[in-house]
Amino acid sequence: MTTAFDKDLELIFQKLTSDRQVKQALDFLKQDAPNTIAQQKELVVIEAPTFQEKQRSLHYAQMLKAAGLQDVTIDEKFNVYGKIYGSGKTGKSVLLEGHLDTVFSFGTVTDVIEKDGKLYAPGICDDTRALAANLSVIRALVNSGLRPHHDIMIAGTAAEEGLGAMSGMKYLVNNKAEEILAAISIDGPSNDVMYFNATGMINYNVTYTGPGGHAYLAFGTPSAVQAMGRAIAALSDMQVPETPKTTFTVSLANGGQAIHGIAQSANFKINMRSDSAEVLAQMEQQALAIFQQGADAENARWQKPGAVKVTFSKIMDVPAGSQSESCRMVQAAKLATLACGITPQPLLGGCTNSNMPIAIGIPAVTLGRGGAEYGTHTVDEWFDPAGVYVCEQKSLLMLLALAGLTDVTAAPQL
């Protein structure tokens, strides 16, 4: 971990952590933890599959208002957000957000089971925990009377998971790009982890079609499944660098219509990721060529040119982006974590809502949700809230440091 910090940033956190009102707000967050957990349990049973967040968005809007947020708005994507207005009336904001959606379909979550201090429910961590945590941050700011210089925007964003491809966050930051100075996302496990780079991700849907036929009588007819197999085999041989970390996998595959039939159709999906936009683009071009090669090789094997055809479409495109570990946004995140008595653990890559602001040049970090957790994206998911309030304390310090605290600290240049 880089340990050198800019002196002005160190001074900002020294002033914040020694300020009486800030100390009271940090203590409030610790005392407010039971309320936060109760709201986490309340939210998790309002199911919100990706692209179907409406009911949770409506409910969260009421919770944001009750916490003291002003001008709460729900946009056409069902992002919900509002403001704590700054004394400077600058029209600029620092954003704190968590995502509304979960990976689970309706009917998966019926209750929260409490056992041995843990909360069991699909989605209890990712990212319901962030939504509840951010409500506590609002209460701390409002109840303490702390007055930021710039505005603070708090949001619940839609469509982060799966094929949502972070489109809610993308819509929000693109529409507020002139306003948002910096963005903080709450996602991922633990109190110490932070993501400051954006791992790019591309998914393709690839389909092979052919004439098919009886496995015996039409032998010699090119097979869509075999064309797909040839492509998958070639894809699996692609060479990618260890640094920047680059990965790929054929994640889903199916095809054929009968056990004794030459396949008329076959389909697979491939996921490709890289911490480098350039490397990701190169891998994408290589994969596109291989998609076609699979069909060509199968047709050549049976001397039937054009019999099997391939079509493909990009179904997800999440931009990659990078920030130096020494940049001031990352320094601020480290200083906030250290101020809470935690040694920060920066991760070089990560595919989170921070991808979207980073992609358009807005400084951003993703901080862990706090507590302990297990089984995210599975029905066995559980959350242990011991010490979880540190997440909210980090968020509060980050917001005040970046927005500036009236009569205490000025907002820094990022």
Brief sketch in words of this structure:
This protein has 414 residues and is an alpha+beta fold. It has helices at residues 7-18, 20-31, 33-44, 54-67, 128-144, 167-175, 224-236, 277-301, 328-339, 355-359, 389-403; strands at 70-74, 80-84, 93-99, 113-115, 118-120, 151-157, 180-186, 193-195, 200-209, 213-214, 246-255, 261-262, 265-274, 309-318, 345-347, 364-367, 372-374, 382-384.
Helix/strand/pairing class, anyone? alpha+beta
Strand element count: 18
Poorly predicted runs are none
Strand order of the largest sheet: 1-2-6-3-7-16-8-15
Choose one word for the global shape. elongated
Rg result? 24 Å
Mean pLDDT: 96
Number of helices: 11
Structure description:
- The radius of gyration is 24 Å and the shape is elongated.
- Helix content is 35%, strand content 23%.
- The mean pLDDT is 96.
- An 8-stranded mixed sheet has the order 1-2-6-3-7-16-8-15, sandwiched between helices.
- The chain has 414 residues and is α+β, with helices and mostly antiparallel strands.
- The protein has helices at 7-18, 20-31, 33-44, 54-67, 128-144, 167-175, 224-236, 277-301, 328-339, 355-359, 389-403; strands at residues 70-74, 80-84, 93-99, 113-115, 118-120, 151-157, 180-186, 193-195, 200-209, 213-214, 246-255, 261-262, 265-274, 309-318, 345-347, 364-367, 372-374, 382-384.
